[in-house]
């Protein structure tokens, strides 16, 4: 496992603040297995980056993320724990769940951006309903009465999302927290409208078929 960043840092590192539930020897908070007895460890409170053995940065190396996730999820595969006791199987299942949440959060730029704000304790709730772009799209949604109009609106909303993620990342890199929060709330609003327009598109299409 030497190719997996962070997996060899067990005893003696600054994060060796936990103890193996079985043999009571010190274990890194992010170790999946005890370095002494090899037993699977319970999920401990660490951030998503630490869980995946990734450097804490906004812009991540996606190929490294994929590698870390693949390696670690293989180590936690349920079939590896079939002959183990219920407790160990439970720990493995919860470790895998936590790993998936961490992976999905870091993989998607929008989720990662939101998480980055939370990690930096800069998250604030903005009102998406008063956002000019959201108001504009909402108005268009009200008027969208045929499938082609819905398609155009969905495309517009999709482009707004794509552009918004870039704006969000730029704001986060520059530690412009206020703009980042405003952009996030706009993205939330646009995403809701995009879902609504897709639903309406489906509804209109089925009306036409009838
Ligand atoms: Zn142990």
Side by side, the strands of the main sheet go 1-2
- Give the overall average pLDDT: 90
Would you report the number of β strands? Answer: 2
Q: Looking at this structure, what is the CATH superfamily of the largest domain?
A: DnaJ domain
Query: H/E element string?
Result: EEHHHHHHH
**How would you classify the quaternary structure?**
single chain
In terms of DSSP E residues, the strand content is under 5%
Structural class: mainly alpha
What characterizes the major β-sheet? 2 strands, antiparallel
Bound molecules: zinc ion
CATH architecture of the largest domain: Orthogonal Bundle
Query: How many structural domains are formed by the residues?
Result: 2
Fraction of helical residues: 55-70%
Low-confidence stretches: 5-15
Could you list some keywords that capture this structure?
single chain; 210 residues; mainly alpha; Helix Hairpins; Monooxygenase; two-stranded antiparallel ribbon; 7 helices; binds zinc ion
Structural description of this entry:
The protein has 2 domains: 18-107, DnaJ domain (Helix Hairpins), CATH 1.10.287.110; 128-209, Up-down Bundle (Monooxygenase), CATH 1.20.1280. The chain is 59% helix and 2% strand. The protein contains 7 helices and 2 strands. It has helices spanning 48-51, 62-75, 86-107, 109-119, 132-143, 147-173, 177-209, and strands at 18-19, 26-27. Strands 1-2 form a two-stranded antiparallel ribbon. A hairpin with a 6-residue loop joins strand 1 (18-19) and strand 2. It is elongated. Zinc ion (ZN) is lined by residues 20, 22-23, 25, 34, 36-37, 39.
């Amino acid at each position: 496992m030497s190719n997996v960043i962070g997996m060899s840092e067990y005893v003696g590192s600054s994060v060796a603040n936990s103890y193996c539930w079985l043999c009571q020897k010190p274990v890194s908070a992010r170790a999946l297995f005890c370095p002494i007895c090899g037993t699977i460890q319970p999920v401990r409170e660490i951030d998503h980056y630490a869980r995946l053995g990734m450097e804490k940065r906004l812009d991540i190396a996606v190929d490294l993320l994929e590698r870390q996730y693949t390696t670690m999820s293989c180590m936690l595969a349920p079939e590896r724990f079939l002959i183990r006791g219920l407790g160990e199987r439970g720990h493995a299942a919860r470790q895998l769940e936590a790993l998936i949440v961490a992976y999905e959060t870091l993989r998607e730029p929008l989720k990662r951006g939101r998480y980055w704000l939370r990690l930096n304790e800069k998250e604030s709730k903005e009102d998406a309903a008063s956002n000019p772009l959201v108001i504009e799209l909402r108005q268009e949604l009200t008027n969208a009465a045929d499938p082609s109009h819905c398609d155009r609106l969905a495309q517009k909303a999709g482009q707004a999302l794509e552009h918004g993620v870039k704006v969000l990342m730029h704001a986060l890199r520059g530690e412009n927290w206020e703009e980042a929060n405003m952009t996030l709330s706009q993205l939330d609003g646009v995403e809701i409208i995009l879902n609504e327009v897709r639903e309406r598109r489906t509804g209109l299409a089925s009306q036409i078929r009838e």
